[in-house]
Amino acid sequence: MTEATAKPSAKLKLLDAAMSVIRIKGFSATSVDELCAAAGVTKGAFFHHFKSKDELGVAAADHWSETTSAMFAKAPYHDHADPFERVLAYVALRKDLLAGSLPEFTCVVGTMVQETYETSPAIRDACDRSISAHAETLEADIEAAMRDRHLRPEWTAKSLALHTQVVLQGAFILAKAKGGAEIAAESVDHLSRYLTLLFSPPKVERQS
Amino acid sequence: MTEATAKPSAKLKLLDAAMSVIRIKGFSATSVDELCAAAGVTKGAFFHHFKSKDELGVAAADHWSETTSAMFAKAPYHDHADPFERVLAYVALRKDLLAGSLPEFTCVVGTMVQETYETSPAIRDACDRSISAHAETLEADIEAAMRDRHLRPEWTAKSLALHTQVVLQGAFILAKAKGGAEIAAESVDHLSRYLTLLFSPPKVERQS
DNA sequence: TTGACTACATACCAACCAGTCGGTATGTAG
DNA sequence: CTACATACCGACTGGTTGGTATGTAGTCAA
Questions:
Q1: Which member of A40, B106, B125, B151 has the greatest number of CB atoms within 10 A?
Q2: What is the C-alpha to C-alpha distance for residues A166 and B168, in angstroms, rounded to an integer?
């Protein structure tokens, strides 16, 4: 099912175009014609590969999952021996990614799910899958870090992993509102500080 | 400029309708006709009060600012004598508000700015004003809490106030993706925990 | 009474929308 | 060479879109 990168098929060109156009204009405001123009293909090609605009939305979310998970899988933050260092380095990477323009660093599925969560269950599910699957890759490191530091907190690794995604998604919204990523970066700093406080208690009594 | 609440004018009915319809379908997917139908008025009334759909978007963001600021202004969390307690109680209130349905507790301006930040500067600015003005009401309490606890941290009251809004906006997105507010609530718990860690250091050396 | 004004309603339009359809070009298996 | 599949094209359609032009009922002041 994976496409050969040599010959860019119409389907791939449409999905790549969707990544950028949806992040600029949102899903609803992006017309099929516009998508075809951006991809350099015709409407016939569009409806040959996708039964409907909604089906492209689902495919776009899946495509986003694949490209981003591949990118994060080969990122160097995994190289740290200490699992907590891996988590911190992941957050640092997310902060670094806030450079560049807004349509470049914001999230396709975060944008799409806002517009479609009530009107298109298929797209919403695809967006949920994308976010949750990415969070699960963090969950493993967080769990390892918890074991490593002998933490038995009231929160779970899963909720903390999802919290990192909450902060990032929220940071994107504030960045869009402000027209720049400065406070988004500061918010990621707050997240980093929170993690450090959780995993490096300055000196606290151990219960049990 | 403030409307009398006695007689629901077409303008007010349109703005109230916008609050709910936009949160359900998003701004782009909400048509003027639909808005008029929801408000029980005709298109003539719409374009009498708003020059364009974009202008309604701006008015909707302003309307959102007014209604929410009025609601938070009379909320009981201000009654705490301790400023940090006020901040914590605010966050607790935001968590309580996560009950109810998604279109009820999510944010109009957070939804709108995602779709319009690149295509409508006027709406984006109105959304920014709404979020930033609300954050500023928190900033005062945070600053007071910082003085109260003699904190001289590397972060600013402003960035922390905005961070609370980042977490809330992100929580809304995750809630939409998941179809429920459970992890949104857990994320607000993480925010609460972060604030507690920042303002109640278990025992740390004082510099200077 | 009149005239100006506000607050709507009705009727309408051109552009645009998602989706369809008949057709072509290029395989590929037998 | 036949039979059929896949990939793609672009004109077309019926309905929807944001927006306009015009009408009218009520209000207030002179």
A1: B106
A2: 8
